[in-house]
Alcohol dehydrogenase (Sulfoacidibacillus thermotolerans), 376 residues
Amino acid sequence: MRAAVFVGVNQPLQIEELLIPEPKDGEVLIRVAACGVCHTDLHVMQGDVKFPTPAVLGHEISGTVAKLGPCVEGLSIGQRVVSAFIMPCGTCQYCQMGRDDLCEKFFSYNRLKGQLYDGETRLFRPDGSPVWMYSMGGLAEYAVVPATDVFVLPDEIALDTAAILGCAVFTAYGAVRHASAIQAGDTVAVVAAGGIGLNAIQWAKTFGAAQIVAIDLDENKLQLARQMGATQTVEIASDPVTTVKALTGGKGVDIAIEALGSAQTFSLAADLVRDGGRITVVGIAKTGVSTDIELQRVVRRSLQIVGSYGARTRTDMPEILQFAATGKINYEQSITATYSLEQADEAYVALRNRQINGRAIVRVEKQEEGRPLDND
């Protein structure tokens, strides 16, 4: 199979032929239709987050079931499916608590070593040498995914664009629904209107936020944010703290969501909240990045700082799919660019250069002549 292989920090992705992987007990082989282009992959490519090489990145996929491993029930060959980037083991303490966003095996095996939960990868070069997996290694024609993370797509959802349900939409859902606990009437600021920020805006609107202020340095992203549900937009260069407080009667917002992952955007989010407000941190920062916040203000003003890595795969993905299938969210409008697998490296160069306003997808499955993909 073809795969875009990450061979080293700051080196371009290389299209290689790898062996088609085999699913083991409780696993599913998916023929990948599309894979989302996420900034977290870029962190790995730039060395901001350590990960073994060679590896296949890409962690939000949609596709069709190609093969079932032993002991997999409830799925069948050919079904249209989607997978989230957090692949729960289902057996660790956190998974049993219903907090599979904190799955111990996902972090210790996959995120640190590029392995699945038997301590092995499923990807190999033709010479038998291992290739490590970032989540399921979605930038390839086939991917092995634990059955705990395979969800059948409703007919109403297009196959290729569904890929971003597994991270951009999924991560934003977790930040809004759980960490921020947004309720009807809340005022919200979203700092950084990229793929996750745009979908956080949409979820905030869906769950009843009365006022949603999007903040970014790019007017094109702010225009898209308005389409996704932002009631006001503010450019970072225009004194956003003063502007947001003026928009909220001088108090600040109930909830500020930081969706980039930098000390500067965190500090901005902290300055935007009212007394008793909540700062939800979603963006992944470079390893070692920290920032200061005045502890006296946190205590006296009763601020809440909540981290949010993702949603809860087994319980939240079905609800996300229901929202998408019934048209209660329109995540597709956040997709602003598409690439082929051979163009995967170009996609990440564009992402690094801030040339992608929302979310991009890589269409992995080759289009047959005369056969359009679902959303063409």
The first helix runs from residue 39 to 45. Residues 161 and 332 are 6 Å apart (CA to CA). The domain at 2-169+312-363 is CATH 3.90.180.10 (Quinone Oxidoreductase; Chain A, domain 1).
